[in-house]
Amino acid sequence: MDRTKNEEFEELRPLLFSIAYRILGSVTEAEDAVQETWLRYTASPTPPASTKSFLSAVVTRISIDVLRSARVRREEYVGPWFPEPLLTDPYQDPERAAELADSLSMAALLLLERLSPLERAVFVLRDVFGFGFGEVAAAVGRSEAACRQLAVRARRHMDAGRPRFEARRTEREELAGRFLDAFRDGDVDGLRELLAADVQMVGDGGGKAPQFGSRIIGTENVVRVLDWSVSRFARIGGVMEPHQVNGQPGAIVRDRDGKVLSTWALDILDGRIQTIRAVNNPDKLGHVGVVADAWAAFHEATAPDRPAD
């Protein structure tokens, strides 16, 4: 194996994964796309003029093909579909850290779902990662003029529903910490004051994990569910571990053995939590850690109290 080729690929791996994940919304599929890119790179007989452009083009084409087939599966998905939660974006650019984090959010990735695979790829390459239209055109196999039109359409869709978040990341983190503390302590009033009037709580169980409902809307409805959950959560020794989820404040939900039950991602704006997105589908949590048996935990949490002897 050419040591230089291997080193160049490993240096670009974080970028390639980040491109693939934003196109696919799946950690496992993005990792597979990067691995397939490596195989094609090693099979290439001549070195490319630009390794970055070549590899980015290859991983983009692979991701577009995977996304086209994945869309059929998502149309048949049980309940709301969310991306697989990503705890850490491996691609680091300190000058654009906040922008990259916002493009990684659950809200932004769900907006990207509205785009065609080509529009999505063009938007990710051009607007998120700043590739020139020449590189974008080579990656998606379209003319530069066509890519400019794809970019215009993609931006129009994205701008129409672009998520807004609290400007200061420290304020988001502080409010999320207060929310998780209030949940842990069963502080109903504390929870209520942190939620927006039209707050939504949405869960992705894929038909494979317990759900409170596909979508719960309004402060009192969400507080009622959270309040009910607190005591049940304590029964299974549950832990809410604060963690960034898709670039936003959130938590990993674990059982008493440290196994993963869920991830929560919080959208925060104007000093209030606007949306709580929970990924409960065990098929989407394997890369986070050892996955708990969610149904067993649910049955334990909701079992009738035993009468005293």
TrEMBL record:
Pfam families: Sigma70_r2, Sigma70_r4_2. Transmembrane segments: none annotated. Residues 107-158 form the RNA polymerase sigma factor 70 region 4 type domain. Residues 9-71 form the RNA polymerase sigma-70 region domain. Gene3D superfamilies: 1.10.1740.10, 3.10.450.50, Winged helix-like DNA-binding domain superfamily/Winged helix DNA-binding domain. Keywords: Sigma factor, Transcription, Transcription regulation. SUPFAM superfamilies: NTF2-like, Sigma2 domain of RNA polymerase sigma factors, Sigma3 and sigma4 domains of RNA polymerase sigma factors. InterPro entries: ECF_Sigma-70_Domain, NTF2-like_dom_sf, RNA_pol_sigma-70_dom, RNA_pol_sigma-70_ECF, RNA_pol_sigma70_r2, RNA_pol_sigma70_r4_t2, RNA_pol_sigma_r2, RNA_pol_sigma_r3/r4-like. Interacts transiently with the RNA polymerase catalytic core formed by RpoA, RpoB, RpoC and RpoZ (2 alpha, 1 beta, 1 beta' and 1 omega subunit) to form the RNA polymerase holoenzyme that can initiate transcription. Belongs to the sigma-70 factor family. ECF subfamily. This is RNA polymerase sigma-70 factor.
